[in-house]
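# nightly structure sweep
# worker-07 picked up a monomer target from the shared queue
# config: single-sequence mode, recycle default, output format = structure tokens
# input follows
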Amino acid sequence: MANNVNVKKLEADLWESADLLRAGSKLTSNQYCMPVLGLIFLRYAYSRFKLVEQEILKDRPMRGGRVLPVEQSDFAEKSALFLPKEAQYNYLINLPANIPEQGLTGIEGNPLNSLGEVVNNAMELVEQQSEQLQGVLPKDYTIFSDELLGELLRIFNNDALDDVGGDVIGRIYEYFLNKFAKNVAQDDGVFFTPKSLVKMIVNVLEPTHGVLLDPACGSGGMFVQTGDFVNHAGMIANNTMTFYGQEKVEYNAKLCLMNMAVHGLTGVIKSGDEANTFYHDAHNLNGCCDYVMANPPFNVDKVKSESVQSAGRLPFGLPGVNKAKEIGNANYLWVSYFYSYLNEHGRAGFVMASSATDSQGKDKDIREKLIQTGHVDVMMSVGNNFFYTKSLPCSLWFLDKGKPEHLLDTVLFIDARNYYTVVDRTQNEWSDWQLKNLNAIVWLYRGEMDKYKALLTEYHAELADDRPFAEIQAALEQNVQAKREEAKAAVDAAPRKERKTTQEKFDKALEALNEKLTVAKEAVWLTEKFGEGVYQDIPGLCKVASRDTILNEKGASLTPGAYVGVAPVEDDGVDFTQRMKEIHKELLELQAESNRLMETISKNLEEMGV
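# output follows
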């Protein structure tokens, strides 16, 4: 837990330092984004290079009393990127300030006269080592002065990156990608899908092996989270999964390839006009995918219907077409494509505009046919402010062509609009425990009680306490209150110059206690509803509905709120009328006090002659 806190601080510190430099450079976020991510990529590649090099040298044969030098083929055997000396991060960091006088030359023998040219050359050298990265890495570092670029290199050479351990630089990379997403809007959509939504999709689909397609792949979050999921399950993602992506915007496709490379993943990503999913199945994967995951742009209009028809992948027919022979809203094109790409046991999970769950006209016709297949698995509503550049709610759709027979007639609806963690005033997310709790509802619906019980065991292990969760929560709340009182007494008693240090010490202790309390509250949230592991409909949260109910009673709506209803409001024992009188009285008193203060301030100003 403390390690996690250290990483969060490191992320924030690095971002603050780098963003301060950006603010002083007169560069826009768009200009700054790719080069900064390129430097983090290079630092990460060097970190992996040194780690693999150590492994290779352990059993390295000797010749003439000397250890044989490592070679590119040694790294290829370990699925790692080989870095020539001039592309290694420590080489760039240790270059002297007077670059023109060093006589450095680039790949083609051309002289390198600035640090920007040296870094550009390093990127070209890295691209030569990986077919996947050719033409992808940024090579515009001459937009920076040598002083600014040198400072950026030093920022990302922070020793703490190695001290914290683990795949920290990969996480730092994602953190920066996230932060830039807030500042760099892309093509009527969001190129960075929030990790909460991506994790939820991956967790419900549970990918382990086979073909994964993201036909609107953006910066590759679906691939990265799938890789983490597969590796965490004890397998090697590059051995068991095959990743394919399509991305119309070439800038985003480059981010995707860098993002995959920084996490050690390989895949085939196509971009440009040939990767416009509305008109092209760029990888010829129709009917071939084990998994489809996507966050497509919502409510796209003016899609040419004739081109769509000739491209196929329309198992349920065309959406509505206007007089100009254009599709006015492409949401159900995406839904149709995702379904069509799946093989006979394939699963799909995707983000969609909330309005799509009960849109009318041709959309409704397509939705009815989809429901009749029995392959709609789970529908989940998501609240506002999950995206970085949009505040609208959305929904997650899950399709499964391999649903077991006993579930073919049902759909699980989850309304998670009121279940989230507030990050700041413009952003919400699901914490890792909240993701697990929502996933647990799906497990119980599917009859996977063993996974639910494993989660309860995980909660007990995290809390290091075997008592009932409600008891643990109550005890932690008492501990937090006691620690606050202890902190106040200690700070009051401390000499003035020691008060800040004393407060900081107690703040750390309180932070750790509150983190544990948050975990306990999530455990209580789950077990109060589902006990030791039996699914039941929970008003306001989840409901299992039959196809007959959906089609004949609810007009083929797939909106979770139409099924789960409203959670019962607990009676807090407060008389509303009486309380409103009290609040009104308090307001009048505060108003009177405010008037008295204003009078006093005015008199004081008059006496001062102001």
